[in-house]
Each structure stands twice: as C-alpha cells, then as structure tokens.
Amino acid sequence: MDALAKSMEEVNATQIHADNSIKDIVAGKSKNIHETMLAIQQAELSLKTMMQVRNKVLEAYKEIMRMQV
After folding, report:
1. pLDDT for 8-53, tens place per residue?
2. Residue 44 half-sphere exposure, CB side, CA atoms within 13 Å?
3. Distance, CA of 28 to CA of 55 (rounded, Å)
4. Could you give the CA distance from residue 15 to residue 20 in angstroms, rounded to a whole number?
5. Do 41 and 15 meet the contact criterion of CB atoms below 8 Å apart?
6. Which residues have CB under 8 Å from 33's CB, separation 6+?
C-alpha cells in the first residue's frame, strides 16, 4: 500500500508541476514553452499510467471475487 500511495503522490506532484509551469507561461515569468510542454506530457503520461494500474488492480480484485472457495 505504501508503494501505491507514494506513486499517487508522485503523480500529483507532476500534475502540480505542470500546472505551475502553465501559470508561469501565462504570467510571463517563463518563456520556455518547450519545458512547459514536456511537463504537461509527463503529467499526462503519469496520470494515464496510474489509471491503467488502477484498472488492472480492479480487474484482479473482481477476478478474485468471482473465484469459488
């Protein structure tokens, strides 16, 4: 469970970083669009990966619940 919680915290951190990068571009604090786009893509990829892991865990849980004891 600790690994799952840590992974969720990392995904959240990448989302926050991407959001802050966007805010910096909009506010004119940064002009590095390339790094902002990389941060957005990384956040998107980490979220999609976390969703796939969640889906696999749910599938495994459902399969276990279908098993007869």
Report:
1. 999 999 999 999 999 999 999 988 899 999 999 999 999 999 999 9
2. 6
3. 39
4. 9
5. no
6. 25
Three-class SS string for the chain?
CHHHHHHHHHHHHHHHHHHHHHHHHHHCCCCCHHHHHHHHHHHHHHHHHHHHHHHHHHHHHHHHHHCCC
CB 57 within 8 A of CB 15: no
Q: How far apart are CA 21 and CA 46, in angstroms?
A: 16
* CA-to-CA separations, 41 to 15, 32, 56, in angstroms, rounded: 10, 15, 23
What radius of gyration do the chain's Cα atoms show? Answer: 17
